[in-house]
Design goal:
By secondary structure, the protein is of the alpha/beta class. Helix content is about 35%, strand content about 15%. It has twelve helices and nine strands. The longest helix is centred in the first third of the chain and has 13 residues. The chain is globular and about 55 Å long.
Length: about 300
C-alpha cells in the first residue's frame, strides 16, 4: 500500500452534460483532497444492444447522460490546473483512442470486466489501468489480469467492488481486497458504494486499500444521487483527511460498521449482484447484456 491512499472522485452521470458543472466537480474534488477525478465516456448506442434499446425507453433515455467529446480537453486542463489527475472510463472501443491524449490513466467498470478486447486496448496504450471487480468471481478477475499483462500492460490495479447501489456494510466483504491481492499479486483497492465512513476507514486501515474510488455529488441534484451511493463533499472530506493522516487518523476504525464490513474474504458475486451479472458486457462485442438475455428480450 502507498503511504496514503489514492482517492478518486467518480462523477458518473451527475455532471448533467454541463461543462461548467463538470469543472465545478473537478475543483471540488481537489478542494476536498482527492488525487483524481473520473468521468465516463459512453454512447448509449454502443453500450446496450439494439434488442434492448428498441424495447426500453429507460435505456434510451440514458443518452442524456452522455459526456460530449469536446469536453475532454477542457476537463483534462481543469484537472491539471487544480493539481489532480484526470481519468475516464471507456465504454466502447473507440473511446480508448478518444481518451488517450487526455487521461492520466484509464478505468474499466465492473460491467465491462468480461470484455477482453477493451482490457487489451487499454493495456496496449501503455497507460495505467484501474479495473473494478463488482459481480466477478475470482477466476474471472485472474483472467482479466492475465489478459492485461499478456497484451503488454505493465501497471494494473484491481478494485474490490460490490455492485449494489448502495451496499450495506455487512455486504461489503472487505477481506476480499486481500484475497484479490494474494491471487493476482496486483495492487488492490476499494470501489465504494456504501457511503459509510467506517467502511472506507476499515478498507484503508485494516485491508490496506491502495486506492479508494467513490461516487461524488455536489448538491444532491445529480442524476444518481437519489439512489443513495453518492457522497456529498462535506461527508467524504473528513474521511479523506483521516486516511491521509495514516495510523493516527484511523485509530477510530474499530466501530461496529467497519468491522462488520470485513466479511469472509471469498470473492464471489453477492446476492445483490447475481441478477445483474447477465447485464454485463458480452465478450463477443462488448454490448450489454449477454447474448442470452438479448435473445429473451427479442421475443418480447
Amino acid at each position: 500500500m502507498a503511504d496514503t491512499p489514492f482517492f478518486i472522485a467518480e462523477v458518473s452521470s451527475n455532471h448533467a452534460g454541463d461543462l461548467g458543472r463538470c469543472i465545478a466537480f473537478i475543483k471540488k474534488a481537489a478542494e476536498i483532497g482527492c488525487d483524481a477525478v473520473k468521468f465516463q465516456l459512453f454512447r448509449v448506442d454502443e453500450l446496450f444492444a439494439p434488442e434492448i434499446l428498441v424495447r426500453s425507453e429507460e435505456h434510451r433515455s440514458r443518452r442524456e447522460w452522455e459526456l460530449p467529446l469536446e469536453f475532454l480537453p477542457e476537463l483534462a486542463a481543469a484537472s491539471k490546473d487544480n493539481g489532480i489527475q484526470f481519468c475516464c472510463t471507456p465504454f466502447y472501443m473507440a473511446a480508448v483512442e478518444h481518451l488517450y491524449d487526455h487521461v492520466d490513466f484509464y478505468k474499466i467498470a465492473s460491467y465491462e470486466l468480461p470484455w477482453d478486447g477493451l482490457i487489451e486496448a487499454c493495456a496496449k496504450t501503455g497507460k495505467r489501468l484501474i479495473l473494478s471487480t463488482g459481480m466477478a468471481t475470482l477466476p474471472e478477475i485472474e483472467h482479466a489480469a492475465k489478459v492485461f499483462y499478456d497484451a503488454g500492460g505493465t501497471d494494473l490495479e484491481l478494485l474490490h467492488c460490490v455492485s449494489g447501489y448502495p451496499v450495506l456494510p455487512a455486504h461489503c466483504n472487505l477481506a476480499a481486497i486481500e484475497t484479490i491481492r494474494a491471487a493476482t499479486r496486483c495492487t488492490t483497492g476499494w470501489s465504494d458504494h456504501s457511503r459509510n465512513s467506517e467502511v472506507v476507514r476499515r478498507a484503508v486501515g485494516r485491508w490496506a486499500a491502495n486506492t479508494v474510488e467513490f461516487h461524488l455529488d455536489m448538491d444532491e441534484q445529480g442524476a444518481e444521487y437519489a439512489a443513495g451511493h453518492c457522497w456529498l463533499p462535506d461527508e467524504i472530506a473528513p474521511v479523506i483527511a483521516a486516511c491521509a493522516a495514516g495510523v493516527e487518523g484511523l485509530k477510530s476504525t474499530a466501530k461496529v460498521p467497519g468491522v462488520e464490513a470485513d466479511g469472509d474474504g471469498v470473492k464471489t458475486p453477492t446476492a445483490a449482484e447475481i441478477d445483474d451479472r447477465p447485464w454485463r458486457a458480452d465478450p463477443s462485442d462488448g454490448l450489454r447484456p449477454t447474448v442470452e438475455v438479448r435473445a429473451q428480450w427479442a421475443k418480447k
